[in-house]
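Notes from the 1:1 (GR / supervisor)

We went over the backlog. Supervisor wanted to see one worked example end to end before approving the batch request, so GR pasted a single chain during the call. The sequence is below; no edits were made to it. Supervisor asked that the structure be written out right there so they could see what the output format looks like.
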Amino acid sequence: MFIGHFAPAFAAAAISPRSPRLGTLFVAAQLVDWGFFGLAMIGVEKMRVDPDATVMVPFDLYHMPFTHSLLGTGIWALAFALIVLIWQRNFFGGVLAGLVVMSHWLLDWITHAPDMTLAGGPQAYGLGLWNYPQVAMPLELLITVGAFFVYVKRTRGPIGPPLALLAVMLVLQAVNWFGPHPVEANTALYAQALLAFAILTGLAWWVGHNRWYIRRGGLAAPSE
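Structure output shown during the call:
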């Protein structure tokens, strides 16, 4: 899953004026992937190209105990929650950001072949939805676009920035689905993924600083 990971970020940003801004929540949504590709660059976590891995995604993610185990994701979530809590002095926002980080493991468990572990051990889990593109593709679009419209409905501001963000997300997802697959896992591939995350996070930061949460009664309030 790629842009589907950002659905919890949109939903969380629409919950309350105490929610962290969208840019922060976009970092939370892909935090463990930031970690994974960063660690893969230095050989700590590992993947390889395998055309038989799943129907949709030709990657064998065979060693990622520090980011994509349930325990590892939990540690990243707790650390990010504490950062948001201290940085924004916002307990609610910290908890919400941590939950968005944790959502990454759940969504990956649904889509990945069995490569998700509980604590880095040999037993791996994954429902393998990537083997069923006719289900996985519309589901990813549905949850992402649905959460996007919830966010737009619950906030107020110029519509241009969020539409630009959604357009770029859809373009990158199309490239991810229909573009040529890499022939090997290398630093260029990892850097490309990090660049995509950075572009989307930058756009989300722009959106979040141009929209305000709508309180009951129609009044707008700035988010944290």
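Supervisor's comment: The chain is about 60% helix and 5% strand.
Batch request approved.
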